[in-house]
Predict the 3D structure of the following.
Amino acid sequence: MIELGKLTWAAVELEDRVDAVCHCIRHTNPREDRRAIGQKIRDARSDLRTWSEGSAVREVDGWLAAAASALESRNAFLHATPLAVFDGNQQPVGVALAEMPRTGRNYNERPMTVKGVREVIIELEAAKAEWVGAIRSASQNRPRL
């Protein structure tokens, strides 16, 4: 159960950073902007295509893509269907989560173990780790109004 809390916290932290980067790209009032985080990412990536091409823009876009993928992994995990896992003799050996196909992802069965949960946490934390560079690049390279 502790790992589920860690997963939730890692997702909350990543969403907060994604929201900040998206807001840097598309200025909105963060208190009034009620778009889902996935929509904010899509809108920010669309806006980036109107900026001058360069490595900084590619860096921000790459980070947003990685963050979107990590958040999608979180969604797939949290909305998965529990499964019983059986060995070759039809004896139960554990439980897994069946992640249904979503947003271009294939069906996946993830072990419902600490290691299985930890895989998603690692992806979320890895995406979060690069957020400072992304927001710095976005703020330094955005078109001036």
Residues 17 and 131 are 7 Å apart (CA to CA). The helical segments are 2-25, 37-48, 55-78, 114-129, 131-141. The chain is about 60% helix and 10% strand. The mean pLDDT is 91.
